[in-house]
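sry for the spam today, last one i promise. struct tokens for design, 80 residues
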């Protein structure tokens, strides 16, 4: 049905679009952790651990895929 989306892949797509910070720039990891924490409801430190190699829950990765799909659809819809 849905393929899981890793936190890293999610951040590569959306951190720049949401905060204007590119991968490799100062503050990127912090922006990524903040975005992941805000979206998933997990704590900042938990999301930071995901970026350090700790395996995130499968459900969180499926949720990130769902959000990714919704936000991509939203890019094509006209603003009201």
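last one done:
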């Amino acid at each position: 049905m849905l393929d899981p989306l890793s936190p890293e892949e999610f951040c590569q797509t959306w951190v720049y679009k949401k905060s204007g910070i590119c991968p490799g720039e100062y503050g990127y990891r912090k922006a990524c952790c903040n975005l992941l924490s805000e979206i998933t409801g997990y704590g900042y430190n938990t999301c930071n651990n995901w970026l350090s190699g700790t395996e995130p829950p499968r459900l969180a990765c499926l949720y990130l895929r769902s959000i990714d799909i919704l936000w991509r659809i939203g890019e094509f819809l006209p603003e009201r």
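The mean pLDDT is 95. ok im logging off now
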